[in-house]
Write a structure and sequence with these properties.
alpha/beta, Elongation Factor Tu (Ef-tu), domain 3, Rossmann fold, six-stranded antiparallel beta barrel, six-stranded mixed β-sheet, 12 strands, 20% helix
Length: 247
């Protein structure tokens, strides 16, 4: 049986690099990759330290790997808020407290269907493993990557590797998505991004009669619901929701 319950481990920073407007953090976190499902997240904090200069950070997992050296996870973030600014300054060998994987994850179709995935900014990163899993199940995958500007788009090269169609949008997402859904006869819409993006996706899904699931990108300081600081109790009831309630 595959273990799915979250665990707490001491993670070690393997590397941190810039990718456009974002940071990509790779952590050695034994036991976490084996439990990973697309849509899940981890909570990171500095073990044994108390400081007003940082807050615990909860981030979606964008990649997980297991190998002879232990399991690693990859996280993508922009480093502009209090929850991730301190993460943009960590270095190789730094140790962090890691709890995860946490959260409700994406539900996969039982049969091969046509799926369109919509990622906004760094939210695109966590859709790549979902796209891979859908493709391996025989699904046809299309992707739309959206952001406020070209500089904030993420993951185009990886998306082209796993999706049949990849569209980039910095304008009217509803128009782009509606056209793609109609042309490809999409059966299921998946999305990851901020509330504004997810509401657009949910509206298009309703208009086109398509089932949808959306993962909300929002600050989740504690990752467990104790702090009452996140929208829609995203850390406990999400971060993946059916699209309809977000309208």
């Amino acid at each position: 049986m595959i273990a799915t319950a979250p665990i707490e481990v001491t993670g070690e920073v393997v590397g941190l690099r810039h990718s456009g407007a974002y940071h990509q953090l790779t952590l050695l976190a034994p036991g976490v990759p084996e439990r990973f499902r697309p849509g899940s997240f981890v909570t990171l904090s500095r073990r044994g330290e108390l400081s007003t200069s940082w807050l615990p950070s909860s981030l979606p997992i964008s990649r997980s790997r297991t190998n002879a050296y232990g399991g690693t996870v990859e996280l993508v973030f922009d480093g502009t808020d209090a929850g991730t600014r301190w993460l943009s300054r960590v270095g190789a060998g730094d140790r962090l407290a890691v709890v995860g994987p946490l959260g409700r994850t994406f539900t996969l179709p039982r049969e091969p269907v046509v799926c369109t995935l919509v990622g906004s900014g760094e939210g695109s990163a966590s859709l790549i493993p979902l796209a891979e899993l859908l493709r391996d199940r025989g699904c046809t995958v299309h992707m739309v990557l959206t952001a406020a500007s070209e500089q904030r788009l993420f993951g185009a090269l990886e998306a082209k590797r796993v999706a049949r169609t990849v569209l980039l949008s910095t304008g009217d997402l509803a128009e782009v998505l509606s056209g793609l859904v109609a042309r490809t006869r999409t059966d299921v819409l998946y999305a990851c991004g901020p509330m504004a993006t997810l509401r657009t996706v949910a509206r298009v899904a309703d208009d086109e009669g398509v089932w949808s699931q959306t993962a909300l990108l929002t600050p989740m300081p504690c990752g467990t619901g104790i702090c009452h600081g996140c929208v829609l109790r995203a850390c406990v009831d999400g971060p993946v929701f059916r699209g309809n309630p977000l309208r």
